């Protein structure tokens, strides 16, 4: 502590300061007062000068008014006398004012006309007359010097009557002389006053301030030594307040010292408790300074990272992080320092063994009381296990997402109240509703209004699931589609109903295929039935026609019986046509397929139609040039076109347009899926369109049924479209019908493209000129129909052949085995009771692998027959056959040396 | 100036009383006058006429002139000098009046004085100040006003004192305005002012748009307009529309009327005008206060200097007749010539030519809706102001 020195004391310094300030203030005030006094004097004298100037002006004005009143202003002598008088009066004004104010009059040229003191001929001032001051003031202040060099200050005024410049001014020196004694007296008074005040101040200050302060200082020094003294001065001034404050301070210091020792103990206890909490915390706690340097850690650090406090304190937190996390870590620390805290962020720290540990950290900035610097406390929780679980959850979630989104059925997830909370992509495909449109709506909005929802909901609620329930659903286009619905309620961990998963399957395709299958089966059944009848009927007709022909050969030309026989033959031919149509429908008619150019067939038929159809029906063709060949029977194609054209004609009784066209189309997988039998690939399309009356849907569904007709009795057989259907089916094709009532009908027929075959030439070939070729050899006829057997015997023996017959397959095998060497040819019925044609052929080949067999059947060539031809039969003849056909194929088979199956092409 | 309804009624009563009064039955002194009760001079002329009528009423009330009733025979000259001259001829030759009183305006007085001089009727000119009237050597004419060339002495003295230097003067091509304008030129030179241009415009109110535009281009500090009231109003309206106002503006006659302030409102503020007299307590002449009171009571109007001049002419005539002791016009003429006396208008003294030399005009200025005397300085009721100077 420094020693008290009087020169540094307040009293000494205050006295010096007050003395200096008093002197400076006295000087300043005396200057201001002196200037004030001088200005006051100047103002006073200038006021007098102004009064004098006013008197001068009035003198001039009075004289001028006099001249005006007396009409003497023009009389030069009078005017001169008056002016002289006025000038004298002005000069005298100076004297009457005790010589303090001097007067001057100048003429318009600035020459001095009169002056109370000598100033020369001119006075160098800026006259009002020369430079009028904008007329606001008729007086102007001027300052100039007399001839003797005395400085004069005053005013000038312009008198227009005689254009005189009037000046009244005072002598500045005189002004100073007058004002100086007054200034000196005032200054002396100030000096005395200041001295007295100064002495009084020193005395009072010493007694009232200096001495008490010194005592106070001594008492304060004693405080240092622990002597808590009480001054108890009873004073009401500032020193008294200070003494009271000292007493209070002394008392409170005494008490505080006692408290302090108690508090210190409490603090130490608190520190120990908090240190325990810190060290034993379950999470890592790290204290950092403002630069991110670790200043303290708890024991958990060593447990989790394997690093001791000694190793870690003084390092940066960033040193503990993997290299690729350092930049993120430093950004985080910067954020904590800037924002004060950062919560629940993840960081990676290195263990001593090199492994990495995931932590969830929260950091907070706080003020370190010791250093006043910002410090940071970080609490880190090990979340390695948590991260692992999270990863698994994400993987599971992704898997579930994939399952939901890639499900082949539509998935709808409902909340516990039945509102849609999730749909998958398939749902959108089926319903047309995007997720944004449908989420939040109730699932019943997807069902038609007439569906009773309550039983459905009840079933789900009771059983917890719904299995493959077929329903109708309403989609975004407003259509109703068949669906198959399955649903299951799912529950949360508390067994509370959480959500419902609904799986919806679109049944449109399935239904469509089912319909097609049913129709195909129906057509197949009808075909089988019709084919069976027609087959039997053909056998009968074969006998009728055959015997009729035999009789016609024998009956003379002029016999009356011949006419009846011809009638029988004609009726049998017509019946044969009908059965042929039936067989065509049931595909039991032989098709002679060859590469065909569809456009040529259409053009041929078009010519025919132009002649036959009524003129009010216009025929248009739309044929494509890029058409490929098809493998078809040209006559059957003609049949198709004619039948469709006749139907179109009947649909357009008032006339209209018949369009026939062709095109090449590619049917993809999607299209084919909807139609049984169709396979993806290139197709040649034939289409026939009319603008007629169209059909109702229920009519359209039955048009291909045999004997179904909407025409009047006798006008249609109901076999036309059935035959078309049969032909298309036998060509592995497909027929579709589109019709709308009142608008017309379109038939589209798809034939498989036959690309690899060259263009077909004209039908050439030498027709067998021999109408009924004769031959020789033994022929075994195996047929269950007796009439056929008899006819064969009668026909063939007339043309050189020997005929042996058998009633069934077993008899036929037995005969062939006996007469194998004689029999050159076997005519084998395909369908027979007992051993069928196929079994019989097998046995015959077993007996003789070179056996020559002609198959006979009332059905058209089909797969079974084709197989038999491949397996050994040489020829095929369809029933009812003509004599010419029979003789021709027998001759060809007998004299053909080609291996079995070699004649297939002729019959395809 | 608009003639008020009350004023018209009064006029009608007076005329009616004239026409049907059986004055022939008594001995009376007939005094004839033709004055502009209509036409361009009607406003100042009517004031003069009302001054005559007040005197007639008062003199008759006090026993008449030399014991005889005074009878004024009044005609309206419609502001036409020729008509006025013929009316005076008629008054003298047909009506055989004993004496005449003067008409109003310098141009009419100029014509009429030829007639009165011819018949040696003394004519106390109460409404004219054109010096040319007195430059013909006539013996029987006596001015009441100071001459027109002294009208603007006060205005020019003031503006010279206040530092103005450039003046433009505009005047109608008529006797009085031309004389007043000449006076402006003369006194400007004397006070160290410069007349930038004197613009003389033809009689008959030609419109002032071009004149104002020209003055604006000259940019004078002061403009003096020498014209009768109608032209003054037109000129000021044109200035207002052109948003032009010189730092100082003075005009003859119109500013002395109360109606000037009513018609122009705030635009009258600061306008100077020469006046022969003002109805103001500062006017120190004997009988002035009583005259103002009597006139206001008689007409319900505040008298202008024209009314005071008319009344003062009658006072002089009465004094001369009384001193002559008869209505002998020669004696009366002689008495007038030698009179040096005071009237309500001020001092009356004429020179050998009959020019008024005892009376000096004063200068008034419109300040805060009132006419204030600003010159001579000793009579000032207010210091001059220059509101246009700050524009």
Description:
The complex is a heterodimer of chains A (908) and B (391). Chain A has 908 residues and is α+β, with helices and mostly antiparallel strands. Chain A folds into five domains: 10-179, PAS domain (Beta-Lactamase, 2-Layer Sandwich), CATH 3.30.450; 280-384, PAS domain (Beta-Lactamase, 2-Layer Sandwich), CATH 3.30.450.20; 407-500, PAS domain (Beta-Lactamase, 2-Layer Sandwich); 591-752, Heat Shock Protein 90 (2-Layer Sandwich); 777-907, 3-Layer(aba) Sandwich (Rossmann fold), CATH 3.40.50.2300. Helices cover 47% and strands 21% of the residues of chain A. Chain A has 24 helices and 27 strands. The longest helix of chain A has 60 residues, at 10-69. The radius of gyration of chain A is 70 Å and the shape is elongated. Chain A starts with 9 loop residues before the first helix and ends with a helix. Mean pLDDT of chain A is 82; it is low at 756-769 and 900-908. Chain B is an alpha/beta fold. Chain B has two domains: 5-147 and 284-349, 3-Layer(aba) Sandwich (Rossmann fold); 149-277 and 362-390, 3-Layer(aba) Sandwich (Rossmann fold), CATH 3.40.50.2300. In chain B, the strands form four sheets. Chain B has a seven-stranded mixed sheet with strand order 7-6-8-9-10-13-14, sandwiched between helices. In chain B, helix 6 (175-190) links the parallel strand 6 (166-172) and strand 7 (194-201). The chains are: A alpha+beta (908), B alpha/beta (391). Chain A binds chain B through residues 58, 61-62, 65, 68-71, 108, 128-129, 132-135, 138, 158-161, 163, and chain B through 150, 153, 156-157, 159-165, 190-192, 247, 347, 351, 357-358, 360, 376-378, 386, 389.
């Amino acid at each position: 502590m420094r020693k008290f020195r009087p020169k540094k004391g307040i009293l000494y310094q205050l006295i010096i300061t007050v003395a200096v300030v008093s002197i400076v203030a006295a000087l300043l005030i005396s200057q201001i007062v002196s200037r004030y006094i001088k200005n006051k004097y100047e103002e006073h004298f200038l006021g007098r000068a102004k009064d004098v100037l006013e008197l001068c002006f009035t003198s001039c004005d009075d004289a001028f008014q006099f001249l005006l009143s007396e009409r003497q202003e023009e009389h030069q002598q009078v005017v001169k006398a008056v002016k002289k008088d006025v000038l004298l009066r002005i000069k005298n004004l100076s004297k009457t004012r005790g010589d303090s104010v001097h007067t001057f009059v100048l003429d318009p040229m600035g020459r001095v006309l009169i002056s109370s003191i000598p100033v020369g001929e001119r006075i160098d001032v800026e006259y009002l007359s020369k430079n009028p001051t904008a007329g606001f003031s008729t007086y102007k202040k001027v300052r100039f010097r007399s001839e003797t060099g005395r400085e004069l200050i005053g005013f000038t005024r312009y008198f227009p009557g005689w254009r005189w410049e009037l000046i009244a001014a005072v002598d500045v020196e005189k002004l100073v002389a007058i004002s100086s004694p007054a200034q000196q007296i005032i200054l002396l008074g100030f000096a005395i006053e200041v001295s007295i005040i100064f002495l009084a101040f020193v005395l009072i200050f010493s007694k009232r301030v200096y001495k008490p302060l010194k005592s106070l200082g001594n008492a304060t020094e004693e405080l240092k030594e622990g002597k808590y003294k009480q001054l108890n001065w009873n004073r009401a001034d500032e020193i008294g307040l200070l003494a009271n404050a000292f007493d209070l301070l002394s008392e409170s210091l005494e008490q505080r010292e006692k408290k302090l020792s108690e508090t210190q103990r409490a603090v130490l206890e608190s520190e120990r408790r908090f240190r325990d909490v810190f060290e034993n915390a379950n999470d890592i706690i790290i204290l950092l300074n403002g630069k991110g340097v670790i200043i303290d850690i708890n024991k958990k650090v060593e447990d989790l990272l394997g690093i001791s406090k000694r190793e870690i304190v003084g390092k940066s937190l960033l040193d503990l992080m993997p290299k690729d996390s350092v930049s993120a870590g430093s950004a985080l620390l910067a954020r904590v320092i800037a924002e004060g805290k950062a919560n629940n962020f993840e960081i990676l720290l290195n263990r001593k063994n090199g492994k990495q540990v995931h932590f969830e950290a929260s950091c907070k900035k706080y003020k370190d009381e010791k250093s006043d610097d910002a410090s940071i406390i970080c609490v880190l929780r090990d979340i390695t296990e948590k991260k692992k679980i999270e990863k698994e959850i994400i993987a599971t979630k992704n898997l579930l997402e994939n399952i939901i989104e890639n499900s082949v059925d539509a998935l709808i997830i409902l909340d516990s109240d039945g509102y849609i909370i999730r749909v998958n992509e398939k749902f959108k495909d089926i319903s047309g509703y995007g997720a944004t449109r449908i989420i939040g709506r109730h699932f019943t909005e997807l069902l038609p209004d007439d569906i009773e929802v309550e039983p459905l909901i009840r079933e789900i609620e009771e059983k917890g699931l719904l299995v493959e329930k077929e329903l109708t659903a309403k989609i975004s286009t407003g259509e109703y589609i068949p669906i198959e619905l399955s649903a299951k309620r799912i529950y949360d961990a508390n067994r509370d109903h959480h959500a419902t998963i609904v799986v919806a399957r679109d049944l449109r395709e399935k239904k469509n295929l089912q319909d097609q299958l049913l129709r195909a089966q129906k057509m197949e059944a009808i075909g089988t039935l019709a084919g069976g009848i027609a087959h039997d009927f053909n056998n009968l007709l074969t006998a009728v026609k055959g015997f009729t022909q035999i009789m016609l050969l024998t009956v003379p030309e002029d016999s009356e019986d011949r006419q009846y026989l011809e009638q029988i033959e004609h009726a049998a031919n017509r019946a044969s046509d009908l059965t042929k149509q039936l067989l065509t429908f049931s595909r039991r008619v032989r098709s002679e397929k060859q590469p065909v150019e569809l456009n040529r067939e259409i053009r041929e038929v078009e010519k025919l139609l132009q002649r036959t159809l009524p003129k009010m029906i216009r025929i248009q063709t739309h044929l494509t040039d890029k058409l490929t060949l098809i493998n078809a029977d040209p006559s059957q194609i003609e049949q198709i076109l004619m039948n469709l054209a006749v139907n179109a004609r009947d649909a357009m009784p008032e006339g209209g347009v018949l369009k026939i066209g062709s095109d090449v189309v590619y049917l993809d997988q999607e299209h084919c899926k909807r139609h049984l039998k169709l396979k993806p690939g290139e197709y040649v399309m034939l289409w026939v369109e009319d603008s007629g009356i169209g059909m109702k849907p229920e009519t359209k569904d039955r048009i291909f049924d045999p004997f179904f007709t909407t025409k009047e009795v006798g006008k249609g057989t109901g076999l036309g479209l059935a035959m078309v259907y049969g032909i298309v089916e036998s060509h592995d094709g497909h027929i579709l019908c589109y019709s709308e009532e009142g608008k017309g009908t379109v038939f589209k027929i798809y034939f498989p493209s036959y690309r690899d075959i060259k263009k077909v030439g004209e039908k050439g070939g030498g027709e067998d000129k021999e109408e009924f070729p004769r031959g020789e050899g033994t022929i075994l006829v195996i047929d269950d129909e007796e009439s056929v057997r008899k006819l064969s015997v009668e026909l063939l023996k007339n043309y050189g052949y020997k005929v042996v017959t058998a009633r069934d397959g077993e008899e036929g095998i037995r005969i062939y085995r006996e007469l194998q060497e004689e029999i050159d040819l076997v005519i084998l019925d395909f369908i027979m009771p007992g051993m069928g044609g196929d079994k019989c052929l097998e046995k015959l080949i077993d007996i003789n692998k070179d056996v020559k067999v002609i198959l006979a059947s009332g059905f058209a060539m089909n797969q079974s027959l084709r197989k038999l031809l491949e397996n050994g039969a040489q020829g095929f003849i369809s029933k009812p056959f003509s004599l010419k056909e029979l003789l021709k194929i027998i001759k060809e088979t007998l004299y053909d040396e080609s291996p079995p199956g070699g004649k297939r092409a002729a019959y395809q | 100036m608009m003639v008020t309804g009350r004023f018209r009624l009064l006029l009608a009563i007076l005329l009616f009383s004239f026409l049907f009064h059986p004055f022939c039955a008594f001995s009376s002194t007939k005094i004839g006058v033709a004055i502009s009760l209509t036409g361009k001079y009607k406003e100042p002329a009517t004031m003069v006429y009302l001054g005559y009528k007040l005197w007639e009423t008062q003199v008759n009330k006090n026993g008449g002139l030399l014991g005889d009733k005074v009878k004024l025979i009044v005609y309206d000259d419609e502001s036409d000098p020729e008509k006025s001259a013929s009316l005076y001829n008629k008054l003298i030759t047909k009506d055989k009046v004993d004496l005449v009183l003067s008409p109003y305006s310098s141009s009419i007085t100029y014509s009429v004085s030829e007639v009165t001089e011819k018949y040696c009727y003394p004519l106390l000119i109460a409404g004219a100040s054109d010096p040319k009237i007195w430059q013909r050597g006539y013996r029987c004419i006596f001015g009441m006003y100071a001459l027109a060339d002294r009208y603007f002495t006060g205005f020019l003295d003031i503006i010279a004192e206040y530092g103005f230097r450039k003046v433009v003067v505009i005047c109608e091509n008529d006797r009085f305005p031309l004389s007043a304008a000449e006076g402006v030129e003369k006194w400007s030179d004397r006070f160290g002012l410069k007349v930038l241009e004197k613009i003389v415009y033809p009689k008959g109110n030609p419109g002032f748009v071009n004149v104002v535009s020209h003055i604006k281009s000259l940019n004078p500090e002061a403009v003096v307009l020498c014209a009768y009231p109608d032209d003054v109003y037109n000129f000021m309206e044109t200035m207002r529309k052109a948003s032009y106002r010189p730092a100082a503006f003075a005009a003859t006659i119109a500013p002395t009327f109360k109606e000037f302030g009513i018609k122009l409102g705030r635009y009258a503020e600061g306008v100077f005008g020469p006046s022969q007299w003002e109805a103001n307590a500062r006017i120190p002449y004997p009988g002035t206060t009583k005259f103002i009171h009597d006139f206001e009571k008689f007409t319900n109007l505040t008298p202008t200097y024209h009314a005071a001049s008319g009344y003062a002419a009658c006072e002089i005539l009465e004094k001369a007749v009384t001193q002559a002791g008869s209505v002998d016009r020669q004696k009366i003429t002689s008495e007038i010539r030698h009179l040096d006396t005071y009237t309500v208008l001020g001092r009356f003294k004429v020179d050998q030519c009959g020019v008024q030399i005892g009376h000096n005009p004063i200068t008034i200025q419109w300040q805060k809706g009132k006419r204030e005397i600003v010159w001579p300085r000793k009579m000032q009721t207010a210091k001059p102001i220059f509101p246009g100077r700050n524009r």
